[in-house]
């Protein structure tokens, strides 16, 4: 029975005063004073990455060795473990080589001397002259080779449709009607 005026106790005994609740951190457990007074910087451990298996190279090697069934391929993969080569660039936590530049290269600078002398205008004018000369030659070739293909409009202009003759035939019931004089 619980004591009078007190809640019912649970049946678990509480640990002693030297017990720490939660997870004990071996490196960082120094209390509040150490957390406020000292910045604890953790040194990064050298991390050796395990590269994924290169199944393309392993499959090529298995075919060269004469493997044909799935069991033979599995045995070859078990004994010949070929890994992908580590490129070392842009992998997480790696050192980037000095002198590498990411992104698109900048376009070359415009020579200012050519801008002052209107060199680009002259180049454009030469291109336009060459284009008109080519168009003139093409027009001459079209004139020499023959006329332009006829479409429906040009055909109908040269060959008009025959005019329908008006028929004077009327039904008999209209023939009997007499016209007033």
Automatic annotation (TrEMBL):
Domain of life: Eukaryota
InterPro entries xrefs: CFAP77 (IPR029147)
One family name in Pfam for this protein: CFAP77
PANTHER family with a match to the protein in the record: CILIA- AND FLAGELLA-ASSOCIATED PROTEIN 77
Name of the protein in its database record: CFA77 protein
The organism of origin for this protein: Thryothorus ludovicianus (Carolina wren)
Taxonomic lineage: Eukaryota, Metazoa, Chordata, Craniata, Vertebrata
